[in-house]
Amino acid sequence: MLITGKCHCGNIAFDLDWEGESPEIPARACGCSFCAKHGGVWTSNPRATLAVDVGNAALLSKYAFGTRTATFYVCSRCGAVPVVTSEIAGHLYAVVNVNAFENIEPSWLRRGAANFEGEDVESRLARRRRNWIADVRITEGARSSDMYGQEPTR
After folding, report:
1. How many whole angstroms separate alpha carbon 140 and alpha carbon 51?
2. What is the C-alpha R_g of the chain?
3. Is the confidence at residue 145, as pLDDT, over 60?
4. Burial of 116 (0-12, 13-18, 19+ CB in 10 A)
5. Which helix (H) or strand (E) holds 43?
6. pLDDT band, very low/low/confident/very high, at 80 (cuts 50, 70, 90)
7. Cα angle vertex 114, ends 92, 14, to 5°?
8. Nearest CA to 78 among 154, 3, 149?
9. Which residues are CB-contacts of 101 (< 8 A; sequence separation ≥ 6)?
10. What are phi and psi of 48, to 5 degrees?
11. Which of 98, 99, 113, 137 is the residue whose CA sits 20 to 30 A from 28?
12. Of 150 and 103, which is predicted with more confidence?
């Protein structure tokens, strides 16, 4: 199943090739202060493939806090955070924000809370290696250039 998503203005867009046709997608609302303030509700499938395209890299802000083991992709134009990556032993892993999905029926999302408070760095990285998307490609400007810079339709 191909899931598409993007930030509000479309500068950070992704295609998530989800393994299987199951209409159930786990959606974890992270309780950390950054995710709570930005509405981060994350999903991943270790068998999925993720292709991220940043239309205008000058409008991309990367943010890392705490353990600095995750990088949040923040659109400087609209403020949305559609993707988070983590580089572990030279390999890039990712999760995507279900709030950025474009073509998924909301009833398919199985929402729940996630709290990683007190998790040590080694355990955190091992969890990500097991659960996060392991096939991740990030490009700049690969999508149609006419979608960037326009006001989103309401």
Report:
1. 11
2. 15
3. no
4. middle
5. strand 41-43
6. very high
7. 40
8. 149
9. 3, 4, 5
10. -80, 165
11. 137
12. 103
Average of per-residue pLDDT values in the chain: 89
Please, are residues 11 and 56 in contact by the beta-carbon 8 Å criterion? Answer: yes
Closest CA to 51 of 89, 88, 18: 18
The residues spanned by each domain of the chain are: 2-146
CATH number for domain 2-146, candidates 3.40.50.150, 1.20.1250.20, 2.170.150.70, 3.40.50.300 = 2.170.150.70
Overall size of the chain counted in residues: 154
Query: Does residue 143 surpass a pLDDT of 80?
Result: no
> With contact defined as beta carbons under 8 Å apart, do 86 and 128 qualify?
yes
Q: SS3 of 75, please?
A: strand
The answer to whether 101 and 39 have CB atoms below 8 angstroms apart is no
